[in-house]
Sequence to fold (232 residues):
Amino acid sequence: MRNKLAALSTVVLVLASPLLWADGENISKVNGSIHVASGRQVGSVETVNGSIRLESSVTAGDIETVSGSIDIGSDSSVGDIDGVNGDVTLERGVKAESVELVNGELRIDEQAQVRGDVTSVNGDIVLARQAQVGGHVENVNGAIELDAARVGNGIKTTNGDIEIGAGSRVDGGIHVEKPDFSMFSSKKHKPKVTIGPDAVVNGTLRFDRPVELRISERATVGKIVGATPIKD
Fold:
């Protein structure tokens, strides 16, 4: 009997552990966070109420949560990332297919790469040094910041400030859209768009609403529509 109980306890511990999924296995929960240990190879990772944390050098499929943060450890490779409420962080050297977020800050650390689009509704989007996004970067509310980073297919926002830091490159231009009537408040925000020294923006810079546009004398930009730049 004692041996049987010991064996049963071992089985329970294995099943309960969040770190002991089989290679290639999909991971899915309704309630609770998910933690994948360094170096593992798993399928898709999904939870409804809980955060998701992948340690370094993990290979995984799509990553999705409704309520909780998503943290992809350094040098990991994943598919599409989808979040509703919670911050998303791609650490140094991460490779992802795309990122779609509703409410929360998105940070793409040094040398991380997103092959497709990066979109958010409410939250800042920050690209650290040598980070790359192959598609477009878009949000409605929140700052978009590039620090010697690269975007392959344009930047779009409605109410957010944009900072194209020194040494950054944006292909596909910049577009600041006019808000819908329902988005106006008694305190209207005038977006600030700053393009730093040695930054390059290829394509049209189109502004459908008033903005404060500052462009370094050492920056290279395309055609400007809808705003008069202030030279720094």
